[in-house]
Amino acid sequence: MTGPDSFISIERVTEISGFSRPTIYRKVRAGTFPAPYKPGGASSRWSLAEVLAWQEEVKAARAA
Description:
The chain has helices at residues 10-17, 21-30, 48-63; strands at 7-8, 46-47. The protein contains three helices and two strands, in the order βααβα. The two termini are 22 Å apart. By secondary structure, the chain is mostly helical. The protein has a single domain (7-63), classed as Arc Repressor Mutant, subunit A (Orthogonal Bundle), CATH 1.10.10.
């Protein structure tokens, strides 16, 4: 992805990944999914670029 990155909500992450909220947090703890940022205290936001890069890695692993 080129250009500016943006922070996205957990709802958008679930749409992109196809995973439920608990599964995303479980994968974050396991180190197999990008960790969220805390830009406003308690709220969690993910880097869109990191989530899309993770998605490309998953596709590449399947093709290998």
